[in-house]
Task: structure prediction
Amino acid sequence: FTQSHQVNMDELNSLASYLGVSSGKLVLDAKEQIPVLKAGNGLTVRGLVSVAKQLVRQSETQELKGTTAEERAAIDQWLEYRVVQVDRSLQEKDVSTVLRDTNAYLSHHVYFVGYQPTLADIILYLGLYRIFEDLTFMEKQKYVHVCRWFSNMQSLFADKMSKKHIAFQRNKIFSGTGH
Amino acid sequence: MKLYTDRGNFKSLKVIAALEFTGLSYSLTECGLEERVVPYLSGTSLPVLEVSPQRFLFSPNTATRYILNKKCDEDDPNIDKWLEWESVQLQPYLVRYLVSVLVHKKPDTESLNRLQQLLKFLNAELKSKSLTKTKDCAADFVLWASLFPVFKGAAEIKGWEGQYSNIKSWFNTINNLPCCQTALDKVIHGGDTTCLKASLNTQPVPLLETETRQEEPVQKSKPQKVKMEKPSETPTPEESLLTKEASPEEIQAAKESWLTGKSKFPKPRERKHPILPKSGERNLLITSALPYVNNVPHLGNIIGCVLSADVFSRYCRLRNFNCLYICGTDEYGTATETKAIEEGVTPREICDKYNKIHAEIYDWFNISFDKFSRTSIPEQTKIAQDIFWKLEKNGFISRDSVEQLQCQQCLRFLADRFVEGTCPLCGFDDARGDQCDGCGKLLNAIELKDPKCKVCKGIPQVKSSNHLFLDLPKIEDKLKAHLNAQFDKGIWTNNARVITNSWIRDGLKPRCISRDLKWGIPVPLEGYQDKVFYVWFDAPIGYISATASYTDRWEQWWKNPKQVELYNFLGKDNVPFHSVIFPCSLLGADDNFTVVNHMSATEYLNYEDTKFSKSRGTGVFGHQAKDTGIPADIFRFYLLFVRPESQDSSFSWDDFQLKNNSELLNNLGNFINRALMFVSNSFGGQIQEMTLTPADFHLLALVNRELASYIDNMEQIKLRDSIRNILSISRLGNQYMQANKPWVLVKGSESDKRRAGTVVSLSANLATLLSVLVQPYMPAVSDTIQGQLRTPPQCNVIYKEFVCQLPPGHKIGKPSPLFEKIETPKIQELKKKFEGKPAPQKNASKASAGNPEETQKLTDEVAAQGNLVRELKAKKAEKAVVTEEVAKLLALKKKLADLMGEPAPAGGKQNSKLAKKESKKPEVSSSGTTANGAVDNQEVERLTEAVSKQGLLVRDLKSQKAEKSRIDSEVAVLLDLKRKLAVAQGQDPEALTGGKGKKGKKK
Result:
């Protein structure tokens, strides 16, 4: 296992326990390093997003899937954003693009989609965790909207998914960088 | 639904196929390659589906699935799986492979290997012949669209059909669907996938899973490649453009056009007035928004319409299109009447005076109108009244009454500006009917206390007055049909589309087209004869009357929508009048009028970091440009270089100096002068025999590429981009001279000398090409170059290929430098001269509390925005526009107040009570500490209590030997509380947990 793939597996396992469903048939494809879920009835689901969606499907928390077609599409697109953009932003410039864009988006939205947390929020919270761990307080002040969202998400999910809390300042502590 | 895409983006295939498959109605908007559509994404990402206004799906896969779900809802995990496979696994390698083949012409074998593995996997999965149980689902369209470019055309993976038979039968089934064929027609014309090149080169390449891939040999060997393809503002000198690759076909084409192209080169068209449309030709009617007469235009006004339209029409003439460029001054309306009263003259005299000022300014800027007219001519009255009668006859004029102040002595209704009185909000006793100068709030004239007539000081009374309305809702359907067709095939800037759509979306309302004024076109209708037409009803008719004063056969232009293409150039503030109201008048009149086909709207040009302001004397105004001693062409060049094409830009003297010295003097001027001096000094001013080497033809191929892009950009009215093409050509020329060193060759052997002759003579021909290409931008400079080269007049056509215009034996004239260096002291002087006086500061003493620079900047912005709002009100601009600008003003004021530690003033009457309430509240921020960083004791107390309570709970749990997970979660809560407490006390929360230190200082 490379480290990031193990992280994906851990995420899916904690998601499963949060949703109260079994992730018993979840394995990592040895060759492709992709999580695979054998969901029964001959159905095999591959990939972080697909497995996460399948786990929600099997659970009783259907509201995480979004309620309208528009919401479901918006959730899908942010889930894709997580795997093609967030997970693959390994260089500093890509990381700051992710922070800048999500910050801009969340300056007008409480959650990524709609008016309550959805799977998009959970998956992005888990995905952005690695980036937020490394942020300085000055950077947290710079990306204040996505930090507000992240802090909100960790108060909802961190303990249930055994994630350590990341500290955020609640007031501006640096002058002259806000604008 | 609306799909935004750049031209030739293969990712649009799937979305269009899905749209066509479902038969849902949608519109397709073509964007520039690097256009940003989604406001919160900083990079380019196309295509984008706008599901409903301002709700975007920026993932093409998601968009495809969403569209199909509209028809038939599914929640199939197998579709999830395939879409994820496509985006995560397939796309990164697929795009890399396509870029390597179509852009770099050098297939990347590593990506190809990966692709083959992925195809093998897909082939195995397809043994059941379909991807999922659902027929024609999102997975089918998504994979079909991605695989198309590697299965068909220039980047085809050879032999795939034999290797992957399952894929083949699945692919062919999908590919044969009619919706897929329609999508292909729209994206890949004629199945030629090389048209995907530009988009592939601009759109971001999907990121890969690991960093290591980024250092692969293919990318490493040409790290500059992608960067160089894009126009770069200031290329580093060592960046060689000559080393760019050209394909053998390009080189062959360049060779042919150099050797034989002159025979195909078209002759310049003779322009004989009056110019009239000709059938079978491109007939372009180009208009620039009519400048309002009582202002002296500033540089922002000039680039906004007249100059932009001038460049475009000069370009059209050089392309031998049949075109006519018209403009004029807009003269009627309240503002002129007020100004006339102020100066104690008649409105007519005011207009005569200012029309002359305008004409002189445009003359100095070398604007080549075919007709510069004015709206106060008899033709205007005749045509406006005729259009009105037709609207009336067709039932599009309605009547209603409006409450207004009437002066009993002057016997007339008063426009808002003509009323003075006491502000109902702040009690200021010299408030105007549109706005109070005391508190700056916008007013309604009938709300003023003790209103007085501005002219006679008499007391006006509220009376109702009958007015005429243009019934826009009734014409809406005609308008929509026209606009939909034009949006599809015309060139419309994004802002023009957005503003127009937002008007239509909000629903059109009847608009008052009459006013109680004297200075205007009389309303001819019985019972309304003491009124005139609203200035915005008649202003655009000025285009028609200007044409009518140019030729009596004006109807050939204006009642000929089949043969004439109408191009409007304007600033974005004028968009609704040109795209909604004027077209409605013309469509409603139902007289076969020519209605707008293309619209190029600019954003705003700022001056340095503030706005142009007449009252404060900030910025350069038309008549002052001449006094700077800098030639008009330099102003033209710079204004076009910073043309606010897709966002606001600004005129900056430092940048002006830099662009003149680096681009004009050191690049363009240097190349042309150097080439000509060599011909003159070393070869007696005579063009030599030219024996071109393969390297020379390579240069020609690169020049042809820039030339093609220049034409393409001009057709799209991307005037900024075309300038960059010109500069790239002269940069190529400079590097060509540098690489060949004719100054060394000329001292060498006989054959070296011949080579030197070839190099400088080719360069002189390149200078000829440049003299034609710069003509739309810098007509006087173009003349000078052509004079020095003694070019034949036949060269003044823009042709798609570079041909030899100066044959061996041609004698050139005397070269001299084209541009002058602008020195820093000169720039400092100009900066100071046009800086203007600072805006009045009412709260100067308090301002010292905040950051003085910031305060000054904001104060200036507030003043400028206040002026803008006043102007808009004066011009009776559309309510929505005014409201928007007022909102901006309020936001600025609030920012200023925040900065100075005052409660924000609320604007507008409706908010005044609220403002008072708020101002009584002490300022407490929502966080633990107050805004200035002091510790909020209440919050600290609350948190301390919470921490001790949570501490007790944890201790209890531990002593009870509770479940570990329970204890852990409660401990986490405790730690969080402690962190919050630390922050509230102004301490470093990280110190608590022993985490890593932070970099910044704490205040």
Observations:
- Residues 203 and 415 of chain B are 53 Å apart (CA to CA).
- Chain B is about 50% helix and 10% strand.
